[in-house]
Design a protein that fits this description.
By secondary structure, chain A is an alpha/beta fold. Chain A has helices at residues 6-9, 13-21, 27-41, 44-59, 65-73, 89-104, 108-125, 145-157, 169-178, 188-195, 201-207, 210-218, 226-235, 249-255, 286-289, and strands spanning 163-166, 182-183, 240-244, 259-263, 267-271, 299-300. Chain A contains 15 helices and six strands. The chains are: A alpha/beta (303), B mainly alpha (356). Chains A and B meet through α4, α6, α7, α9 and β2 of A and α1, α5, α8, α9 and α10 of B. β6 of chain A pairs antiparallel with β1 of chain B, so a sheet runs across the interface.
């Protein structure tokens, strides 16, 4: 939960956290209702299973003081929501459903009707994972087929096994899962900061931030000084730029001297001829493997 | 099609592997009846515990992935041989018992399997864009490509001068890389088909085990319970929920943490309510704590919390205070790893990826 801060929200954090956790989904309410039902209708054994845990959850994880206290020891801002995973929402609700159908509903017809009503409740109380449409994977790699074509074009054009390329957001996040010989000029978090509006052009300029300059052009569609862009490509050893047809940077890339070396249905692949080509090779550890293993571990302890 | 077939077969290979590792515990299973699902459950955690014990020393000495793959192949073969020697009688007894199942029970098991298979197919056949795969799957691909372990940044491919401790002890993706290397399966196929399918079947297996405990093996109730859990997993969706991790982020270790480990602790709680002194259940809980650190570093925070919330109330419910030191003892490995990570974040130590 990037947008929530325990120090700022204080004791109200847990309520807001639960709000984000179950946004548009009433399953936590179903969990509470199921617990109440089990308390009233289930046998002693089932009550003993879920009620003590629920009470403990209320006293700890859902206690407004707990996240504040925990955050004073460890930074749990981004990950506190994972404590809510301990709540067995689905298990308790399904258990209550099965008890309701088989112990309370009576004959077969009433059981069938109750089951159908419960399924309807489960559907309406939640939000369907494929509500935006079920997208079939295009291939066994579960990657866009066009991304595979792009990787192929890059390798056919490049003389080296490893190459470095700048992509738009979605391909940037996916390309190295498919092809680890394609290196990237910036990491995931830097890219995410740029597309979420946290990249300040003034700071990029001031710090001569090379990957920031590439992001300005490719991710944000900005037009910067062409020489600065070429310098950014040189300093990050980025030979290739891949953009979608809809990206307005196409004209800029041509103006900056990049050559179009290939196209797919939706993407253009540009090459920059480096002044000083840098060939990436993985570090050679073969000599190190021969070392005395006892001296091999390198841990720096505090002075 | 061939790759899809091989990837699907490997799901069953994973289950056989976990069963074999779980069978190694047969001599310490006490008087408990040999259960296939419980053996797979135990084996899954023993597998990752043993893998971590081999992986971390190899990483500390910057050994290549292929070196670990060779060792791990030998360990798997040895585990198969040892399990056959230790548990063969129990396997035979289990087969005899299974043969005696009535047609109704076979129908029930087939129904449970079909439910899981349909869910797995829907999940695997769907295209999902997830950001964290940029690390996890890319780490498998990078480790294979460079024949190294956690030395290169999966996001960029750049060499790192020190290990990222967030991922150092959670070697789930290194295990994926080792198996990809041994079976010559592309990382994306392994992660997004084999491991995703494995995660779905494991999740349903644990739900089945819980359902069996809750309803004392009443088949109709257990089946309805499973049907409800599967339906809800498609609807309990926000970007934070356990179901989101099961349906969308299935190939990540966190999916297993949310959907196998935490419900697994609840299952062990159910087991312990029957007998708080059951050594086998306590041993299993300790194994869960040891093995789950390999799945995700979040385990080190969530497992102690889950034990605190789920297992500690047993002391009151069953009026047996000896539960408390045992439960705290199980938390120790996770707490130690969490402290190791905090010390790294505070800058107290760094583990370099090269000799200095």
């Amino acid at each position: 939960m990037q947008s929530l801060n325990i120090a700022e929200a204080g004791f109200s954090y847990i309520f807001r956290c639960v709000g984000y956790y179950s946004e548009g989904c009433s399953y936590l309410l179903l969990y509470v209702l199921s617990l109440c039902f089990l308390f009233l209708k289930a046998d002693r054994r089932l009550k003993r299973v879920f009620l003590p845990q629920a009470l403990m959850l209320l006293l700890t994880i859902y206690n407004p003081v707990f996240p504040v206290l925990l955050n004073s020891i460890f930074d749990v801002n981004k990950e506190y929501y994972r404590f809510l995973w301990i709540t067995p929402v689905i298990i308790v609700t399904a258990c209550a459903g099965a008890v309701l159908v088989y112990d309370c509903a009576g004959n077969a017809v009433r059981r069938a009707v109750t089951t159908a009503a419960l399924i309807l409740l489960m559907i309406t109380a939640g939000s369907f994972v494929y509500s935006g449409g079920y997208v079939k994977a295009e291939n066994i790699y579960q990657m866009p087929s066009e991304l595979l074509q792009v990787a192929d074009i890059l390798h056919r054009d490049s003389d080296t096994e490893y190459l470095r390329a700048m992509f738009e957001y979605d391909y940037h996040m996916q390309i190295r899962q498919y092809d680890p010989t394609i290196l990237l000029p910036c990491d995931r978090d830097t890219y995410m900061e740029a597309v979420s509006g946290k990249l300040d052009p003034e700071i990029v300029e001031e710090e001569e931030n090379a990957s920031g300059r590439l992001l300005e052009v490719i991710a944000l569609g900005m037009r910067i000084d062409e020489e600065d862009f070429r310098e950014a490509l040189e300093s990050t050893a980025t030979e290739y730029v891949v953009i979608s047809n809809a990206n307005p940077a196409a004209v800029f890339l041509t103006d900056a001297g990049l050559k179009l070396v290939g196209t797919t249905a939706g993407h253009r692949i540009y090459r920059y001829d480096m002044k000083e080509p840098q060939v990436f090779q993985p570090e050679d550890y073969s000599g190190i493997w021969e070392l005395d293993s006892a001296n091999g571990i390198q841990i720096r302890w505090p002075n | 099609m061939l790759q899809a077939g091989i990837a699907s077969i490997m799901i069953f290979f994973n289950f056989i592997l976990y069963f074999v590792f779980g069978s190694l515990l047969a001599p310490v299973s006490g008087k408990k009846e040999f259960s296939v699902t419980r053996t797979v459950f135990a084996g899954f955690f023993l597998y990752y515990t043993v893998f971590t014990a081999f992986c971390i020393p190899a990483m500390l000495k910057w050994k290549p992935l292929s070196y670990l793959a060779g060792i791990w192949a030998a360990v798997m073969v040895a585990a198969f041989a040892a399990a056959a020697a230790l548990a063969f009688r129990k396997w035979k007894a289990a087969v005899r018992r299974i043969r005696k199942y009535d047609p109704g029970h076979w129908g029930f098991l087939a129904g449970v399997f079909i439910l899981s298979a349909v869910q797995a197919f829907i999940i695997i056949y769907n295209y999902q864009f997830t950001l964290d795969a940029a690390y996890y799957v890319a780490n498998v691909a990078t480790s294979l490509q460079t024949d190294s372990m956690n030395i290169y940044d999966p996001y960029t491919g750049n060499w790192q001068d020190h290990f990222q401790m967030r991922y150092f002890f959670s070697d789930f993706s290194i295990n994926d890389a080792v198996l990809c290397s041994l079976f010559r399966i592309p990382p994306l196929v392994w992660c997004k088909t084999t491991m995703a399918g494995t995660a779905v079947f494991l999740t349903n297996m644990v739900s089945y085990m819980i359902g069996n405990k809750l309803f004392g093996g009443e088949r109709k109730k257990v089946f309805l319970f499973l049907l409800f859990t599967e339906i809800m997993n498609f609807f309990f969706i926000t970007i934070y929920t356990t179901s989101e991790f099961l349906v969308v982020r299935t190939c990540e270790g966190k999916c297993l943490l949310a959907n196998v480990v935490l419900p697994g602790i609840l299952y062990l709680y159910l087991d312990l309510t029957e007998n708080t002194r059951d050594r086998n259940s306590w041993l299993l809980l300790l194994l869960v704590c040891l093995g789950s650190s390999a799945l995700s570093s979040s385990s080190n925070m969530l497992i102690p919390a889950s034990i605190g919330v789920t297992i500690l109330p047993l002391a009151v419910v069953k009026k047996d205070w000896r539960v408390v030191p045992k439960a705290i003892g199980c938390m120790v490995p996770c707490v130690l790893l969490m402290l190791a990570y905090v010390a790294y974040v505070k800058g107290l130590y760094v583990i370099y990826t090269y000799p200095r």
